[in-house]
Amino acid sequence: MLKKIPLYPFLFAVFAVISLAAVNIGQIFIGETTRPLAFSLSLAGILFWIFLRLTRDSHRAALTSASLLFLFFTYGQVYAALEGRLFLNVSLFRHRMLFPLFCIIGLAAAIWIPRKIKRPESFAYSLNLVSIFLLIYPSLTIAANLTQQTIADESALNETTIVNGAANSSAPDVYYIILDGYGRQDVLLNEYGFDNSEFINALRSRGFYVAECSQSNYAHTLYSLASSLNYDYLDPLGATNDAERISLLKHSAVREAFEQQGYRIVAFPTGWSMTEWTDADLYPDYGKSFTTLSEFETLFLDTTMLRVWTDYDRLTSKTTPYSQARRLRVFSMIQTLKEIPTREGKYFVFAHFVIPHPPFSFGADGEWLNFNADTATREQFVDAYINQVIYINREILQVIDALQRESDVPPVIIVQGDHGPPPDLTNDPSVRMPILNAYYLPGVEPAEALYPAISPVNSFRVVLNRYFESSLPLLEDRSYFAPNQDRQRLTLFPNNCVSSDN
Fold first, then answer.
1. Distance CA 407, CA 310 (A)
2. What is the mean pLDDT of residues 229-255?
3. Is the pLDDT assigned to residue 406 strictly greater than 80?
4. Distance of alpha carbon 411 from alpha carbon 350, whole angstroms
5. Based on the domain organization, do 214 and 303 belong to the same domain?
6. Tell me: the pLDDT tens digits for 108-129?
7. Host domain of residue 184
8. pLDDT higher for 416 or 273?
9. Could you give the number of structural domains in the chain?
10. Burial class (CB in 10 A: 0-12, 13-18, 19+), 161
11. Which strand (E) or helix (H) includes residue 347?
12. The pTM of the whole model exceeds 0.90
């Protein structure tokens, strides 16, 4: 079969998708590969059919189409590797140079292979075999991750919680609002020249305690939220891989505690599958249409010759389909949050806003932002980041006002950064670890429950102790930094912040 049937164009088309999925398996939902796989196989089928009609030879058609597929699926990766490289102080590796070159090579292959290759069937066995071997490693990687995820999910669902009984009518709704990549006030001022005191003071005037020396426990979203939503560090929780961390995030001790109290769970589409609790009691499915691209789909297109189109679209359009969906999700989350107090029942709300973290799609007033990360200077990155801080500041204050005004029972509200400014701006732990961390705990004297250096791992220990009669001891506040390139290489990072309370 491997000698007679040229399967390799189709196997190579599959490899182009699943190899990318395997590299990013800890960050994506496996269902996101469906449309890229359908597109890749369709492209392979169309090319094979065209050359089969032209050559009347399945092996010539397969060899020609495989050559063109190779060019198509590697273009974006070659472009990314060569972008910015200079030859005799001239930047030759731009689309206007590279794209015509690939087209010329493709045209030459389409003409030369059908005419000059005398025994194309002799390539079938070896290319089929190579294609199969290429598929083995990414397939095993994905299968292992899915297996780990299933085991971790079952383990998480079997865990017991420390909160029992049902919430009474005086129990508050609880809002856990994550602003992704939101740094601490002193960092924003000292590193980026932005005075965020107006927002901090606005929080305090609304009854919030702002922990002015808070640091994240981990430097990356998955690690940070898996820890905070289980009010413990990852080592004691036994989380040694991304599958286990994802399971801890999706099926957390905090979520289980509120479910056992009779709370309804509210979560939102975020564009990042790890924080999308699709099985929540309320999960608004907005921002999705057939033309909406997920982050993985956009990443896939950027590895192909269609990067010419995606880059052009970024330069000439106010927004790409992905950033348009991102904006819609943020707008809709804000509106839905404001409406929750008007609903019957008790709610635990997990709202992960993916800003001010890039990609940057909001200006300071919420306007469309046309930001090209590939060509931006650091100063432009800083400006774009700060503009998203300014925008979300205003929107979150409006959300808080609505929650406080419309709730029959004053709600518990935590507004928190999962980590500081993103790796695009810094890999310095002194900038990356300090975070915004603000608490609205009605009926609780801040001096009795909170302190300047409280970290996310203790957030729900305080909430469960104060409102649900738990007796969880507070943990030592520790911060573990890891570079973006090696997220499991954790090192303890001290907190040298000096509070004005001291």
1. 44
2. 90
3. yes
4. 14
5. yes
6. 999 999 888 888 888 888 999 9
7. 169-493
8. 416
9. 2
10. middle
11. strand 347-353
12. no
Strands 347-353, 174-179: pairing kind: parallel
**Same domain for 128 and 86:** yes
State the Cα–Cα distance between residues 282 and 427, nearest whole angstrom.
36
| Cα dihedral 217, 219, 221, 226 sign | negative
Q: Which of 84-98, 181-195, 230-244 has the highest mean pLDDT?
A: 181-195
In this structure, is residue 234 part of a structural domain? yes
CB 362 within 8 Å of CB 369: yes
- Position 56 in a domain: yes
- 359-402 per-position pLDDT tens digit: 888 999 999 887 766 677 888 899 999 999 999 999 999 999 99
Do both 247 and 369 map to the same domain? yes
Residue written as token pair 């905090």: 254
CA distance 11 to 82: 27
Report angle CA 289, 178, 375 to the nearest 5 degrees: 65
The SS3 of residue 179 is strand
d(CA 125, CA 144) in angstroms, rounded, equals: 29
CATH number of the domain residue 359 falls in: 3.40.720.10
* 60 and 184, same domain (yes or no): no
Distance from the first to the final alpha carbon of the chain: 77
The pLDDT, as a whole number, for residue 261 is 92
Residue after which a domain boundary falls, among 98, 129, 144: 144
> Tell me: the pLDDT tens digits for 472-502?
999 999 999 988 777 778 999 999 987 766 5
